[in-house]
Amino acid sequence: MRITEIISNIYCYVATIKVKHGKSNTSTRTIIYADGMSQARALLVASYGENSVLTITRITNSQLDETVPNRTKVLQTPKVLPTAYKHKLAQKALLNQQKRNKLHVKPTIDDLRAANNELDVQQKRVNREYENEIKDRQKWAEIRKRRIIGAFIFQLIWQITPFKFKEL
Question: CB under 8 Å, gap of 24 or more: what pairs does 21-27 form?
C-alpha cells in the first residue's frame, strides 16, 4: 500500500442513473465516493451497466452538508491524514509493522529436531524419576510388611511361651 493511497482525499460525486423497471424507464440520482471522475464512472458502469450512467458531477463538502429534499443529512466524506504530522505517523506505523513481520522467527527443521530431542530427554528423565519413586515405595512397603510380620510373630511367641522370656 502506498502512502498516497492513505493521505489522498476521496471525492464525492452525484450521478444520474437510468433505471429500467418493467416497461418504464426512470432516472434517479445516487451518490458515490471515488478517487476521481474515471474511477466513479467505472464503479457506476460495473454496478448499473454501460448505457445506464447518464451524468456524473463532483460535489463539494459544502454542497454535501446541505439538507437533501427528504430532510436528512448526507454523511460527510472521511477526512484522512491531512497534515504532514499524521503522514509521518502513518509512515512510522507501517515501518513498525514491517519490522515486526521481519523479526518474526520462523523455526527450521534443525530447530524442530533439537526441540524434539530435548523433549525426549526430559521425558526419559521424568520416567526414570517415576520408576525410582515406585521402587522406593515398594521397598518401604516391603520393610513395613516385614516389621508387621515380625511383630506378629513376636506376639505369637510371647503368647505361647510367656514365662520363658520373663525368666531371662
Answer: 27/54
